[in-house]
Design brief:
By secondary structure, the chain is an alpha+beta fold. The protein is 18% helix and 28% strand. Strand 12 and strand 13 form a beta hairpin. The termini are close together. The relative contact order is 0.18.
Length: 307
Amino acid sequence: MSALTIAIGDAIVTRVEDSQGLGFMPGEMLANYQPGQWEAERDWLVPAFYDPQADRLRTSIHSWLVRTPHHTVLIDACIGNHKRRPSIERFNMRNEPWIERLAAAGASPDDIDFVMCTHLHADHVGWNTHLVDGRWVPTFPNAKYLFTQAEFDRWDDRRADYVARPLNQYVFADSILPVVESGQMVLVDDGHTVDNLLTVEAAYGHSAGHVKIRLKSRGEQGMFAGDTIHHPLQLPFPHLRSVFDEDPDKALQVRLAMLEDCVETGALLMPTHFAAPHCCHVERQKPPAGVGAGPVSYRGRWHGYAG
């Protein structure tokens, strides 16, 4: 497990790992991937982000722990333990020491004041709850859990108009509803802030109510991207579309706007699924020559952030 702690203005940000390793083949995750695209960026993609022998992307699933001068905030809650996830075997009935890793990062579940979920997919809400005497109860007893109304409505499987997706089977019942029943859910809108440092910003497309979260303090910025971007290959090839995007066209426009935002503001890009070194500053570059080049292209400035 790689450790990573970064100061952004008055906030201290620490990565809390739930999973890291080889995952999907590129074409399994990126719908319009063309074999050979990784070759143009081989010098930095291999081996950190792609294993060409296995033909598999190296990815991570992690939370971001943010300590402001006033509160302790968790951004996204990973996969969780003992949860039925039949559609993705490596998510199914896990038993991992994420709580111990949270402790190593300097926080206990009781310390968390806010849980901010970029969206409500299985690998972003699993640790919202844990099993106690056979019941799912909130893992963070003192926290308010912040979701957007649109995202909550999308996954509320009690609704007559609910559209099921296998990847989120059982998620509402075991990771969302117990938070509702405990009175800890707070539905927020675009622009909602925590401590005037963390701002919820609409980033719909990957899911109906997906958000990104901007950290802004003392002239420095961080961008918690959630699943607006899934893999570093989408920096040089931002038009690569995740198979998990519900509205791929909208998700693409959000991704392009976010990357431009990071270039212009200097915000540190902090996605949920980038393998080590996990985050980067974003710069424009000339589009790669050859297969699958698009009209715009970016690169990450990674140095200085390896754990």
